[in-house]
Amino acid sequence: MKIRRVVMAIAVVSTLGLSACGSADSGSSSDTSVAQLTLVPAGNVLDVRTAAEFAEGHVQGARNLDIQNGDFEKALESLDKNATYNVYCRSGNRSAAAVEMMRNAGFTKVVDLGASEEAAQALSLPIVTD
């Protein structure tokens, strides 16, 4: 497991290095992908699953904003639209919807990390329970 994390970290760093060298366009595209990730504070990781799912296990430092409880758009008002956010859920469906809602609300640096396991690997953070 430890070797796998090291290999994943090397792959992410290599991908970041190659994407930085391979692109002359430094425009402000809102279509941010995992390959374009930079290290961001854990406080900018959003888990958009239900509170019960979040309690079962979530990426360390993630904030729970349930996209299905009706308060998601209101909760977005308290977030900094200029910050980078990494969003995940159980399978990637809700995170994709959340990212679209965030972009429609004016957020420009939003990354859809898909499922919780993929998010943990991409961010090199463990999945924890409270």
What does this molecule look like?
With 130 residues, the chain is of the alpha/beta class. 40% of the residues lie in helices and 17% in strands. The chain is built from 5 helices and 6 strands; from the N terminus they run H-E-H-E-E-H-E-H-E-H-E. Helix 4 links the parallel strand 4 and strand 5. The two termini are 23 Å apart. 27% of the residues are buried. Residues 1-30 have low confidence and may be disordered. Residues 39-129 form the Rhodanese domain. InterPro entries: Rhodanese-like_dom, Rhodanese-like_dom_sf, Thiosulfate_ST/Rhodanese-like.
Number of helices: 5
- Tell me which oligomeric state these chains represent: single chain
CATH superfamily: Rhodanese-like domain
Give the SSE order as H and E letters: HEHEEHEHEHE
Instruction: Compute the number of structural domains.
Output: 1
Helix amount? 40-55%
Specify the CATH architecture: 3-Layer(aba) Sandwich
Distance between the first and last residues' Cα: 23 Å
Look at the structure and give the CATH class.
Answer: Alpha Beta
The gross shape turns out to be: globular
Which structural category do the helix and sheet elements fall into? alpha/beta
CATH third-tier fold name = Oxidized Rhodanese, domain 1
- Arithmetic mean pLDDT: 78
How many E-type strands? Answer: 6
The strand line-up of the biggest sheet is: 3-1-4-5
Poorly predicted ranges: 1-30
The percent range for strand residues is 15-25%
Largest sheet: 4 strands, parallel
